[in-house]
């Protein structure tokens, strides 16, 4: 622990030099951000202080970019905010200091802090849509940032605002200045947030999951921008993310947090290629990979709650190589020869294969492709509502359909992955299959020949039972007022009329199937972790003994380690019950791990359908190629291929190819006037493009990009 | 992120907390403790007052007209020489009884209609909500007097009338609360499973709007008490000689300059109950997390 007088003393040249490590004295060699032995906690119900961060040391030098990774609850955001001298309500510093340049951030008075924050040390938040004021134009908000944090005369502000927007590569900056935040796409809002952070010419940028929630292509572009800003302006960056792929892209150095402790730190290459801590190793193994058709390995268990770590290593409960010493003795953060440091007693053993770390093959159970479980024929869905005038005249609104003429045949026992960016209509299709949205055209056939009634209110109970839905976010799909027993009882009572002892027995059996025990029956959703909640949601769907399960982004709200466990569970359930899945996800790597076939959607139109191995390897639709190129994998030195720009289109074009406006390989007027034909191979791989199949390329093959792309050289 | 940790530290009972926890949270707040003590005191007095009062509430005495407080009559006497302490202690019984029955009725029917409209939406919702708006636009006392003039007074009329009138604003609250819940996936999941509307309302919606309805009910109770006392004050509530705060205030107001005690004690009794209810409702809202206004961050 730091001496308390250091915490209280005002920052001065003298006191800050006492921190200087062995590297040498002098202000310039000092790291810009220095967090030393910081412990932050909150008062628990019992009155004891529960630490959220424990003895954290962190230094970020000028021009350096450091990634901060960890699961939710690991304290990574708390640490980044602490670097600004900010703690959420209820949190207190229990020891240690946070310095920015010569300022002790927790000892600084409010006015001095306000001058620094947003100026020399700026934050780029996760959801910039919410951090921009909705009622003020972008120009006004940027102007405010300039007024507060730049020394430029007021007359210069307009010019500077345009320059900032150009710097973050927003097209037509003058137009953007006049827009309101809601008139911009998520990616554009994030760029504006970055421009605002740059207004004060900051020395340090704190980035709190700045690309989480954005589409893959947008995310890749934003990361590219951040990386360049770091190189050009020499701004130090502290990049908080749960996504090792994003970190690999932007950061020189990575710090891994676990249960509020730094467990591993080193260069990006060291951490990603040869992690010397079992947690980082497990985390990497739990990430699904584009290049690997196997299922990722789940990291069992969950991190200890604040104050819940015992005397030993905080990771001991989940560690495959834990020994007696790990329980009794807290490992110190040891600096190794390569310069990395690890908080593990047995770090030299981590290069060995850990038990249970082998990726398993996903189950393939399609016996007979001619037996369909579900046939979508010519399915069209529209959200457009007829205006009063249209209603009076009996017209249909003249807007292209949200989802247009989807033909998809799902065989019994097959898993079809539906991928696409947000707005591609993938969830809309699931809702239509579930009967929650009425299509405007086409039909849905269930099994061999039964037509599926469109409206859920008129569907037969048998059809309702046999098609079940699992939602993205278990916090939203489980009623917070119901215990697990009540949640599971609903389908069991409704479909099978169970009660009393049989109901209880069946509920317990279901919980065991999703690897939870009977003791979960009395829990409320708020008493479970995200992964446990999603298991309950899956158990509820399987309680109906369904033939088809619709999975709507079921893993995207979960931590990667938990995501792997859920994928494993879905795979096991499929093996045991022969379930057919319609699996919607924006994450191409996740889709690859589970699916037999993949359907790629762009703005509600199918671009490409085919067996998973072919879609990911052989010639692809230009859009698939763009998506695959933008995927971030936790591999250092691999640059994403940015083929198309990330401009978001609001409505699909009325004629021609839906992807015409963003396509990097557009061949001419034919793309705008004629709907492209389906080109199909005997194996069932179909691509919808005007370019002949043999001229299209597969993932990984590079070609000289055409005029419209922004690819790196 | 540590966001999930902070609510535990910010000190409110979590969603779905058992009654005991909510009570403890309310008592931990000074306003809640004051409010609950006031309300409890009034309830005890209302129940026990027939055995507590020193005099007969009807006993008139010509020699004691408007005599100031003394050892025999702690609160003095009124214009007919009746003991003000006796009448003040008894004066809340009718009001509390009527409103305690009418409030749950109002919350129940208004809550159900509101939640139903929130779930089904569409044209029915549009039309009924405009009716509600129109109804709320009229001054309440006018509507109330119209009904009472038509059907007469007495508990048999007052309870349904108050329940009817005070259920209408509850519709709006319940509908707004239900709207937040209807958009959530668990309602969609229940629909996709094929549950009926009533089952969705009962199992998915009501448990989640219950907190908002409880707080609304507490607020409605205080409004209803005021309304009941106002009606008595105007002569449409309790009939003499039954003691009632509204009536006592009305009777004593002519003598207020010369004999303030005859009016002040019933006023104090009524106000303290109203304040107690409001403080409790406020603390309840905070304990249940319905009132999310918190200390501004930084």
Task: Furnish the topology, listing elements before pairings.
The complex is a heterodimer of chains A (713) and B (298).
Chain A: H1 4-8, H2 13-17, E1 33-43, E2 49-60, E3 65-69, H3 76-82, E4 91-100, E5 103-104, H4 110-116, E6 121-124, H5 128-131, H6 138-149, H7 157-167, H8 173-177, H9 186-198, E7 204-208, H10 216-233, E8 236-241, H11 244-250, E9 253-258, E10 261-267, H12 268-273, H13 278-285, H14 324-328, E11 334-335, E12 341-342, E13 372-381, H15 388-393, E14 403-411, E15 415-419, H16 426-434, E16 441-446, E17 450-451, H17 461-466, E18 467-470, H18 474-477, H19 484-496, H20 500-513, H21 530-543, E19 548-552, H22 560-577, E20 580-585, H23 588-594, E21 597-602, E22 605-611, H24 612-617, H25 622-630, H26 669-673, E23 678-680, E24 686-688
Parallel strand pairs in A: 3-8, 3-9, 6-7, 7-8, 15-20, 15-21, 18-19, 19-20
Antiparallel strand pairs in A: 1-2, 1-4, 4-5, 9-10, 10-12, 11-12, 13-14, 13-16, 16-17, 21-22, 22-24, 23-24
Helix pairs in contact in A: 6-7, 6-9, 7-9, 10-25, 19-20, 19-21, 20-21, 21-22
Chain B: H1 6-10, H2 19-28, H3 30-52, H4 84-90, H5 93-120, H6 122-137, H7 140-151, H8 155-182, H9 185-193, H10 197-234, H11 245-252, H12 261-288
Describe the structure.
The complex is a heterodimer of chains A (713) and B (298). Chain A has 713 residues and is of the alpha/beta class. Chain A has a domain at 372-415 and 423-546: Rossmann fold (3-Layer(aba) Sandwich). In chain A, 31% of the residues lie in helices and 19% in strands. Chain A contains 26 helices and 24 strands. In chain A, the strands form four sheets. Chain A has an eight-stranded mixed sheet, sandwiched between helices. In chain A, β19 (548-552), α22 (560-577) and β20 form a beta-alpha-beta unit. In chain A, α6 packs across α7 (157-167) and α10 (216-233) crosses α25. The longest helix of chain A has 18 residues, at 216-233. Chain A is globular, with a radius of gyration of 27 Å. The model of chain A is unreliable at 1-27 and 702-713 (pLDDT under 50). Chain B is mostly helical and 298 residues long. Chain B has one domain (19-46, 82-288): MetI-like fold. The longest helix of chain B has 38 residues, at 197-234. At the A-B interface, α3, α17 and α19 of A face α1, α9 and α10 of B.
């Amino acid at each position: 622990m730091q001496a308390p007088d250091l915490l209280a003393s005002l920052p001065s040249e003298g006191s800050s030099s006492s921190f200087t490590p062995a590297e040498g004295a002098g202000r310039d060699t000092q790291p810009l951000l220095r967090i030393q032995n910081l412990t932050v906690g909150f008062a628990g119900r019992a009155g004891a202080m529960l630490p959220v961060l424990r003895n954290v040391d962190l230094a970020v030098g000028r021009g350096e970019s450091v990634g901060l990774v960890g699961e939710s609850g690991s304290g990574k955001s708390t640490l980044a905010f602490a670097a600004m001298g900010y703690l959420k309500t209820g949190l207190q510093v229990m020891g240690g200091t946070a310095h920015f340049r010569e300022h002790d951030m927790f000892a600084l008075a409010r006015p001095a802090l306000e001058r620094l924050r947003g100026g020399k040390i700026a934050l780029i938040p996760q959801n910039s849509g919410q951090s921009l004021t909705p009622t003020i134009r972008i120009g006004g908000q940027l102007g405010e940032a300039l007024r507060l944090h730049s020394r430029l005369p007021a007359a210069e502000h307009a010019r500077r605002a345009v320059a900032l927007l150009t710097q973050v590569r927003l097209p037509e900056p003058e137009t953007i200045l006049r827009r309101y935040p809601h008139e911009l796409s998520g990616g554009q809002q994030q760029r504006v947030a970055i421009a605002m952070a740059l207004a004060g010419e900051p020395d340090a940028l704190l980035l709190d999951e700045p690309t989480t929630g954005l589409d893959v292509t947008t995310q890749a572009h934003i990361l590219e921008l951040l990386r360049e800003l770091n190189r050009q302006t020499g701004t130090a960056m502290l990049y908080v993310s749960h996504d090792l792929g994003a970190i690999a892209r932007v950061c020189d150095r990575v710090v891994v947090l676990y249960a509020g402790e730094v467990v591993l730190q080193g260069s990006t290459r060291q951490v990603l290629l040869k992690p010397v801590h079992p947690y980082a190793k497990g985390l990497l193994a739990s990430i699904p990979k584009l290049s690997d058709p196997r299922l990722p390995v789940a990291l069992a268990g969950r991190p200890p709650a604040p104050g819940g770590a015992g005397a030993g290593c905080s990771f001991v409960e989940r560690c495959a190589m834990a020994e007696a010493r790990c329980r009794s003795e807290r490992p110190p953060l040891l600096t190794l020869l390569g310069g990395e440091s690890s908080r593990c007693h047995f770090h030299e053993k981590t290069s060995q294969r850990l038990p249970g770390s082998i990726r398993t093959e996903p189950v393939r159970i399609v016996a007979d492709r001619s037996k369909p479980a579900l046939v979508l024929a010519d399915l069209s869905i529209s959200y457009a509502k007829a205006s009063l005038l249209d209603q009076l005249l009996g017209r249909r609104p003249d807007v292209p359909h949200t989802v247009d003429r989807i033909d998809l045949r799902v065989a019994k026992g097959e898993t079809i992955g539906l991928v696409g960016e947000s707005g591609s209509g993938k969830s809309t299709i699931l809702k239509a299959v579930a009967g929650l949205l009425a299509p405007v055209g086409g039909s849905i056939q269930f099994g061999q020949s039964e037509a599926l009634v469109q409206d859920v209110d008129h569907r037969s109970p048998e059809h309702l039972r046999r098609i079940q839905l699992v939602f993205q976010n278990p916090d939203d799909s489980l009623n917070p007022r119901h215990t697990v027993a009540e949640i599971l009882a609903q389908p069991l009572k409704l479909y099978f009329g169970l009660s009393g002892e049989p109901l209880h027995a069946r509920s317990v059996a279901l919980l065991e199937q999703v690897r939870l025990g009977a003791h979960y029956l009395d829990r409320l959703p708020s008493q479970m972790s995200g992964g446990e909640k999603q298991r309950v949601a899956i158990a509820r769907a399987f309680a109906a003994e369904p033939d088809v399960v619709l999975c709507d982004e079921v893993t995207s709200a979960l931590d990667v380690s938990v995501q792997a466990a859920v994928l494993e569970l879905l795979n096991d359930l499929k093996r045991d019950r022969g379930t057919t899945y319609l699996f919607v996800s924006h994450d191409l790597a996740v889709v690859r791990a589970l699916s037999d076939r993949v359907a790629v959607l762009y703005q509600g139109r199918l671009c490409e359908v085919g067996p998973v191995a072919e879609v990911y390897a052989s010639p692809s639709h230009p859009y698939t190629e763009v998506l695959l190129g933008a995927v971030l994998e936790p591999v250092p030195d691999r640059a994403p291929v940015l083929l198309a720009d990330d401009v978001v289109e609001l409505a699909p074009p009325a004629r021609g190819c839906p992807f015409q406006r963003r396509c990097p390989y557009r061949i001419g007027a034919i793309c705008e006037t004629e709907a492209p034909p389906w080109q199909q191979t005997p194996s069932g791989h179909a691509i919808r493009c005007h370019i002949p199949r043999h001229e299209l390329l597969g993932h990984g093959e590079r070609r000289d990009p055409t005029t419209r792309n922004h690819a790196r050289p | 992120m540590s966001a999930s940790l902070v609510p535990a530290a910010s000190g409110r009972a979590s969603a779905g907390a058992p009654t005991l926890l909510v009570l403890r949270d309310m008592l931990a707040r000074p306003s809640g403790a004051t409010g609950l003590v006031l309300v409890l005191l009034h309830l005890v007095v209302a129940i026990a007052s027939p055995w507590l009062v020193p005099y007969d509430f009807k006993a008139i005495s010509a020699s004691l007209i408007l005599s100031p407080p003394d050892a025999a009559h702690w609160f003095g006497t009124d214009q007919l020489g009746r003991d003000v302490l006796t009448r003040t202690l008894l004066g809340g019984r009718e009001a509390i009884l009527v409103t305690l029955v009418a409030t749950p009725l109002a919350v129940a029917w208004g809550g159900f209609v509101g939640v139903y409209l929130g779930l089904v939406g569409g044209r029915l919702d549009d039309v009924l909500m405009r009716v509600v708006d129109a109804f709320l636009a009229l001054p309440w006392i006018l509507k109330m007097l119209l009904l009472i003039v038509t059907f007469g007074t007495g508990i048999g009329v007052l309870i349904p009338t108050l329940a009817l009138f005070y259920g209408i604003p509850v519709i709006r609250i319940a509908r707004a609360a239900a709207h937040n819940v209807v958009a959530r996936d668990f309602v969609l999941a229940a629909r996709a499973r094929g549950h009926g509307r009533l089952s969705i309302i009962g199992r998915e919606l009501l448990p989640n709007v219950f907190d908002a309805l409880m707080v609304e009910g507490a607020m409605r109770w205080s409004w209803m008490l005021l309304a009941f006392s106002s009606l008595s004050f105007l002569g449409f509530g309790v009939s003499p000689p039954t003691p009632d705060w509204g009536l006592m205030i009305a009777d004593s107001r002519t003598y207020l300059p010369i004999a303030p005690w005859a009016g002040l004690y019933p006023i104090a009794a009524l106000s303290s109950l109203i304040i107690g209810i409001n403080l409790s409702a406020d603390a309840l809202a905070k304990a249940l997390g319905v009132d999310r206004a918190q200390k501004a961050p930084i």
